[in-house]
# Entry
Amino acid sequence: MALLVLAACAAPERQQAVGDFRSRAVTRADGGVSVAVSVLSARESADVYGVPLADKATQPVWVQVRNDDDRPYYLLFPGLDPNFVPASEAADAFAANESADVKRQLHDRFAALAFRNPVPPGQTVSGMVLTSLEEGVKLVQIDLAADGRTRTFSVFTVVPGFRGDYHASKVFTREIYPPGAIRDFDDDAAFRAALESLPCCATNGDGSRNGDPLNLIIVGGLDDAFPALVRRGWRPTETKWSGAIMRVVTSALSGDRYLNAPVSDLYLSAVRRTWRCRRPAIRFTSATTCGSGSAPCAIRASRYG
# Structure
């Protein structure tokens, strides 16, 4: 991959009007420790670092840790990504063949942005961890270690610019169903019987042809289903908007993989309720049958092949 050419013997200037990634951070807390996480888009990372990190398949994750515990904590970078890139190595990749001044500027910038351990008691530390590039969504694992204690957080984030099919179709919200359409079950046997009575397959729009078979059940909502699937390498698809269609065409011509490519619709009970995650290619269909007490919904998955 070609290295970026830095002009005029100086490191590129970083854009100053950057900071929105902090405002959309996802937060989690456990005991006396709280974290905030935000994943940067390719454009944001270029603005912040002054170089196109995405061109080298690198993606910054901003992490903030607030420690109200009685001992220092250390953020374990391999938890975010076993292939995380140390700031100095990333700077070297963009500083090759440059002058000593440019190299120093790049190393200073990357070092200043990096997350620095430890997080002392009563203090807040924030910074970037350089991870492998992911488009669409990213499941960020935060592992914090202290003397005799650990804190672990799994944070599901959406990369800016991604137009998820699951979001547009609102399949995880009960509001898309008419009153009385959702059935809740507290008895496992009755829930299984209701599932067995469901149709065998999804259909086309007018119900005249069967589509993919329904052969997997996930009981839960967005926060339950998505982290588990993304953790195992599944990728949600985009809506069929112009940018996604152009990406499909360019990917086909270039041979590049487009893991979030949009797909055709499937229907259940004449209602479009499908969203899809790619891996061995599975399409998911929301159901009005809900089970086991507080579980918000059941998701019926149809194999797409």
User: Anything to note?
Assistant: Residues 163 and 243 are 10 Å apart (CA to CA). Residues 165-303 form one domain. The chain is about 25% helix and 30% strand.
